[in-house]
Every structure is written in C-alpha cells, then in structure tokens.
Amino acid sequence: MPQMQLVKCTINGKATETTVDVRASLTDMLRNDYRLTSVKKGCEVGECGACNVIIDGECFNSCIYLAVWADGKSIMTLEGLIGPDGELSDIQQAFIDEAAVQCGFCTPGFIMTAWELLESGKEYTRDELRKLLAGHLCRCTGYENIINAVETTMKKRLGKA
Amino acid sequence: MYDMKALYEAKSVPDAISLLQEHPGARILAGGSDVLVQLREGKLAGLEFVSIFKLDELRGVSLEQDGTMRILPLTSFSHVARDPIVNRCVRVLAEAVDKVGGPQVRNIGTIGGNICNGVTSADSASTLVAYDAVVEVTGPEGVRQLPISEWYVGAGKVALRPAELLTAILIKKESYEGYAGFYIKYAMRNAMDIATLGCSVNVKLSGDKKTVADARVAYGVAGPVPMRAKSAEEAARGKPVSEETVEAAAQAALADVNPRTSWRATKEFRLHLVEELARRALKEAINRAGGEI
To answer: Is the ipTM beyond the 0.95 threshold?
Structure first.
C-alpha cells in the first residue's frame, strides 16, 4: 500500500486539497492532480528550471520539492498569471514581443522567476538579471531575447520605458 | 516519484529525534536539494526518510547576548544571504552562500544541509571553517557543541551520532569582530556549478593598518574535507601588510593542502589555485580591513 497524505494548499489563488503519494514531487502533483501542464518535467534534478513555480512568493524547482511539503502553502504557476478572459500578463506578452520563445519548454519556468523579480519592484542591471535568471536553461534562444523581455517589462513597470 | 520506502514528517525537534531512534536506517531530509537529487540518481533508493523541512523553529538568524551569532540550520541560502545580521557581522558568509547553484537552489538549499552532507566543495563550509564556527547538535542525550574543526571526520562524513540532528551553527563574537574577509569560488561556470576550489580568508589588522594581527585561511576541495591552512596563517600573522607577506602566505598554503585529481580538475591545477586564490583573497580581505597593498 502506498503511503498517502492529504495536502491542502492554495494554487493560483484557489483553495484546494488532494491526497498524494508521499513519494510524489510537487511537479507530479501539479501536473497529474491539477493538470497544470505549464510545469514542465525537464531534468528532474533541479538544474534546468523548467518546473519552476512560486511558493509563498519565492521560486522553487518543483521537481525537487516533495508534494507533501506544499501543505499550507500558496503556490503559483504560469496559469495563475493569465487574466479571467485569457488575457496574457505583461511579462508573457513581452516574451512574445521580444521573440524570447522558440520551442517554449523553458518559458513557463523563466516567466515565473521573472515574475518574482518583477514583483520585488527593484531595478536590476543586466548583469544582475543574468544572475537572477541563471537557474534556467534554454537550448534555443541564446538567452539575449529572454533578458530583453524581462528588462523591458521591468522598465515599463518602473515607468522608465 | 522518489524511490523512498517511507517518509516521516517530523513535527518538532524532539519528534525528529524519536523518529530517527524508531527508524535507525532513516536519512534526514532538509531542503532536499542534495538528498532528493541523489534519490533520483538511485543512490539513496529504497531508504526511509525523516523530513525536517517543515520545522520552522529551525529557521532564522539571531544574535545572542554575548554577541554570538546563531544561524539555525534550515535557513535557506537566499535567506542567509539577505539576512541583516549576517551581512553586518560576517559579510563573507552572505557572499559565499550567494554563489551556490542558482536562485531556485538557493531558495531551497539549507546552510545546515550544506555542512551535514560533509562535502568539501560546499560554498558555506570553507567560510564557516575560516570563522571557527561552532556546531550545535541535539540528540537523545541532549545538546552538545563542537568546533567545526572536529565536525568533518572524512569525505562525506560528519560527527553526527545516531538520531542526532544539527540544531544550530554558532559564530562567536571574537571570531568575527574586527575581521574582514573574502571568499573566492573558482568554478567552470558563473552559476549552477560546484567549486573546483574555494578559498575563504579573513584578516584582522593592527590599529594603524600596517600589520596583520591575525589571519585565517580556509579551503574547500583542497582535501577530502574543508580545511584551515595553518602554515599560511602563520606566514601572515604578525607580519607587515605587504605584497611579500601575501606572497609568503600564499606559498605556505601549499604545505597544508592535499587536493586530488577529479574529472573537474587535476591535482596540479588545484595546487595552482590554492596559491593563486589565497593571494587574491588575502589581498581583497586586507583591502576590506582598511589595509593598503
């Protein structure tokens, strides 16, 4: 018999609960129980950032985070950025405008880290942005357009663009 | 799914200790950025785990009445890096843990886990060794403290007894007051990498900033465990603040270390780094302490 446990948490603003196998990662729970497929399974060892989600305001690779640890937490995935009528958020639109998306597999992870740093309301240099985005691998874009998208959104939000 | 036989979530420190007593083969799981990755690789497959991740009582940094800094073991790297007390008293530690992995890893990885896995390349370890940190563990027989020099007993092995848990890392006031330091992580990439060699130095200068009153030099990956370079320290202690002193200390460090060849780098390259990083870190530490070279 697998060891099961109840996990109550808030996901994208909605109170939820489900019973998970204690061996499940948060990636497993978000994808399988909640069909939040923006959370990608990439390396599954915390190196590529494709499974990145926000937990209580900070970014975490959900592949190396036990689903049971999510109990009592507030989680946000890319789906949580979309408006009630499917409108894209500023950072999602910026990724499109700056051609920061090619295959798209790394995009949700990048956008969630970008969201965390944009929410801080701080202005970062390009070098600082590189460091803050360093937990994500992109095999298509060469990163420049991704950094452009984050920088442009940051400047817009700060009224400097 | 992780290949765990069972998971026990501790509700408190005493609960964690009794869980570890009830399940003698169980491994402690803190942030999991090391343990869960090893599980994925099959290394710890099929074992029982005691998770202490949810023990918020083991998070935070505080100053005790006598000025001792108390860092609780589940404090994440990013929280250590941002902590005002850490930044004021032991800035080098804040800078060292900010070099671990990448942002998400720094949000989940804990400073306690970083020294409990006994790994020589741990970014916090050489700095904690340089600061003469004291390790506090709690077990069935109560609380005991030991100097970090007695903590590492071999590659990947620390002095934790069965059912014991790291409950604090302490840095005494006399270890940090008046000292300035610098940590250099040499790695092949700027992020998401493990140190090829790490060197953490702190120095205290005389009142006129002309003499090195004290110097502490510590390394990661210069041997099986994080270590102090006592010869290098002796070569600098009591000597004038000068290029010659830095040079002598950097060369003396070679007598203290015992690096090996691994896929990351050869022994020869590591020896080169031992000398060069000591030179650079010492100079920067002296500059930060107000000395001029």
So the answer is: yes
